[in-house]
Amino acid sequence: MMISAGRSSAVLAEACAAAGFDATGAEPVRLAENEIWRVPGRVIVRIARPGQWRAAVREVQVARWLAENAVPAVRALPVDQPVEASGHPVTFWEELPPHENGSVRDVVYLLKLLHPLPTPDFPLGRLDPFVRVDERIDAATSLSEDDRNWLRERLAKLKEQWAQRPAGRPECVVHGDAWVGNVPRTAQGPLLMDFERVSIGPPEWDLVSTALKMTTTGAVTEEEYAEFCTEYGMDVTQWEGYELLAGARELRMTTYAAQHAATRPEWRAEAQYRVDCLRGRTEPRPWRWKGIM
């Protein structure tokens, strides 16, 4: 869901005033499910969806916990936050210096710092690989009803399997969406960002995204993936629970594209292609899924 530009600007102004910032001259960075704005003073403002207050609180807590544990990550500004503006939880962050997407090596470097940390003293909640997937299917109106029903059946089957998933490595704090797009690299090195899905869960979940870049989308070479496995000390594709976790991640990627394709016609072909891949209507893996947003 995207709020209108006019309403978004009003929410931004209200939130900045409450936190002591001036929104004059603000520039949009990314307007999607969560809206990201840049305001003068190297401040990044994140406007979350209504109803996401607890998640916003957790994101700020996680950022401060990572700073206390010397994990390179984006930093929450030292203000009383989140603030509420017209029903939206809003958070404030240090703007990053010039950066680019990190590499597979950067992802594994940060996961090796994150996964051994002791559980923090604030509630994180347990990993839910299927959070909001049902909502995304309902919103995917560019798809046929047959495709949407198939996605619902796939979701139900994966949920059943998740409840009986095989044991793996000891559960720990997981990022929840660990891939190169959430690991910016600055001149000082790579950083973690986007803490919306940080939770307690199987560390294998944080490894699956990179594995899929090789097995599913072909964006990572076999050599890059082998280095990733060597650095982390595990090849998640050889674990008996891999197909379940990979299936859950592929479903998330597909329904994310399908949800946004309902309001962005330029993404409809990609969303349909992803559904067709899952349903066996196309060539075998690796597929060449294109990024959106």
Structure description:
The chain is α+β, with helices and mostly antiparallel strands. It folds into two domains: 5-95, Phosphorylase Kinase, domain 1; 104-278, Aminoglycoside phosphotransferase (APH), C-terminal lobe (Aminoglycoside 3'-phosphotransferase, Chain: A, domain 2), CATH 3.90.1200. Helices cover 42% and strands 13% of the residues. It is built from nine helices and ten strands. The chain has helices spanning 5-19, 53-68, 104-114, 133-139, 145-163, 204-215, 222-232, 242-261, 268-278, and strands at 27-31, 35-39, 43-47, 83-85, 88-94, 100-101, 172-174, 184-186, 189-190, 199-201. The protein has a five-stranded antiparallel sheet. The protein has a three-stranded antiparallel sheet with strand order 6-8-9. A hairpin with a 2-residue loop joins strand 4 (83-85) and strand 5 (88-94). Helix 8 (242-261) runs antiparallel to helix 9 (268-278). The two termini are 13 Å apart.
Keywords:
293 residues; alpha+beta; Phosphorylase Kinase, domain 1; Aminoglycoside 3'-phosphotransferase, Chain: A, domain 2; 2 domains; five-stranded antiparallel β-sheet; three-stranded antiparallel β-sheet; 10 strands; 42% helix; 13% strand
